[in-house]
Design a protein that fits this description.
Blueprint: H1 8-16, H2 20-38, H3 45-62, H4 72-91, H5 99-108, H6 120-132, H7 135-146, H8 151-158, H9 162-179, H10 185-194
Length: 195
Amino acid sequence: MKLPYHQDSELWAAFCKGDKAAYAQIYERYFDVLYAYGKKFLQDETRIEDTIQDLFITLWRTRLRLSPVDNIKFYLFRSLRRDFYRIGQKEKNIEKIDLESLFIQELEAFDDVPNIFDDPALSQRLAKVLAKLPKRQLEAITLRYYENFSISEIADIMHISNKTVRNTLTNSLSLLRKHLKSLSYQSIISLILLN
């Protein structure tokens, strides 16, 4: 079989037929982004990795029964979120993440950040405001601005309506704007996109 597959539907179909190279390509293409998404739910890196590994094991075992997929990233995010939800239900609590330090680390990871981040007080304010967002708002921002999912894809991943996604994003940006008064909405979105 040819490699690499460029169309998700082609790659998924090959994987469902038992092509181990296609399976490996899916894993390699999406592991890092799934791991970053998992950090929004769990702090324990081992548990994040184990959950992703379990997802891929389940995919391999059930590949013959899987439906065609046109957007593998979307399918994996939706599946992983469901798995994290099950973990939370089973344990009755998902660990509290130190969001402030997580966002400060993400902000510091960029060398080409505009001058606005040269101000440590502003980057700490941004991290603190992001940490104050309810978990659902933070997840919606992550899916929209970090992972580039559409409103309808976010609604499907989070099991909420399109209108709720729009309202959640609007409320999140309004809250950020309220706490970062010196910045426009566009500046706030730019800051979010950069970290």
